[in-house]
Design brief:
Elements lengths: L2 H16 L3 E8 L2 E6 L6 E2 L3 H15 L27 H5 L20 H7 L11 H15 L2 H10 L24 E2 L1 H12 L3 E2 L2 E2 L3 H5 L6 E2 L8 E2 L4 E2 L5 E5 L3 E6 L2 E7 L5 H14 L4
Antiparallel strand pairs: 1-2, 1-12, 3-4, 5-6, 7-8, 9-10, 10-11, 11-12
Helix pairs in contact: 1-9, 2-5, 4-5
């Protein structure tokens, strides 16, 4: 039995014991893979894991010279109004949630204002203060779209097609833009392809789709975030933890967990149980590392 199979079996056992409402599991360790399903493998919203896809979009655009993550977004959106201090906010600030702009999440976030990005940018900045916000990612992709056109269309030949992911649906705002911080539907196995690309620092099938530095920035140069375990540090879409691992984490248990040469992909419908199952997956990887 391969280590990937052992890890899979132990996670499946933990899911059964905990009652975690899992949908799909994909484990990759080195070149070995193992999978398990609790429900049919249909496409479902990966929620905030889509923030990582937005980072990939920005990194690819930077590789092509279309943008700089460290240039003020005001450069890309000259017809927008900017609140106090927001003229210094960059794409990197937006994608690391450190714009200092206060705009809380709501169920109706995309429709609360005529243009969410304009509302976000016209509010004042408190400096480099962390606030996790779907509006921040949406605004980043609004700025990116000003240079590359529709971000979903931009990514199709550069990311999704090389990964063999076709006919994607990405939820749109009333302005016609991708909602960015969520709303992207993928199957578990399709999500695992993104995980493999990230694990391999942007390389896919012998081709470098994105420079390694952008992948590295997803889990380095950590900024202080919340106080809770595994929520105390955040980088470019990546959360530190559990333990020595790092992860992309979407609501209701959508997870890409990275530890050395392993990546564990989980899709689920269990918001409260996600932290425990992520910790268990990392413990399993650590416990099997020498077996």
């Amino acid at each position: 039995m391969t280590r990937a199979q052992t890890v899979r079996d132990r996670i499946v056992e933990r899911v059964g014991a905990s009652g975690f409402v899992a949908h799909g599991l994909h484990v990759r360790v080195g070149a070995d893979t193992a999978e398990h399903r609790w429900t049919p493998d249909v496409r479902e919203d990966i929620h905030s894991v889509a923030k990582g896809v937005c980072v990939l979009a920005a990194g690819i655009a930077a590789d092509e010279g279309a943008v700089s993550l460290d240039e003020p977004v005001a450069t890309y959106l000259p017809d927008f109004a900017f609140g106090h201090g927001v003229d210094e906010v960059t794409l990197r600030h937006l994608l690391t949630m450190t714009s200092g702009v206060d705009l809380a999440w709501s169920d109706t976030l995309m429709t609360d204002w005529p243009d969410l990005a304009r509302e976000f940018l016209q509010r004042p900045s408190r400096g480099r203060v962390f606030q996790y916000s779907n509006a921040s990612t949406y605004t980043a992709m609004t700025a990116l779209a000003a240079r590359v056109g529709d971000v979903g269309d931009y990514l199709t030949p550069r990311l999704f097609a090389p990964l063999g992911i076709e006919d994607l649906e990405w939820q749109r705002s009333p302005r016609g833009r991708i909602v960015a911080g969520g709303g992207l539907a993928l199957r578990t196995e399709e999500l695992s392809r993104l995980g493999l690309l990230i694990r391999d620092r942007g390389a896919w099938d012998g081709r470098q789709l994105i420079a390694p530095e952008w992948i590295d920035s997803m889990h380095s140069d950590w900024g202080a975030a919340g106080d809770g375990e595994s929520y105390d540090r955040y980088a470019l879409a990546g959360w530190g933890g559990p333990g020595p691992a790092w992860r992309l984490h979407g609501a209701y248990g959508q997870l890409l967990i990275f530890l050395e040469d392993a990546v564990v992909t989980i899709t689920a419908d269990d918001h409260l149980g996600a932290d425990d199952i992520a910790a268990s997956a990392v413990q399993t990887l650590l416990a099997t590392s020498d077996s």
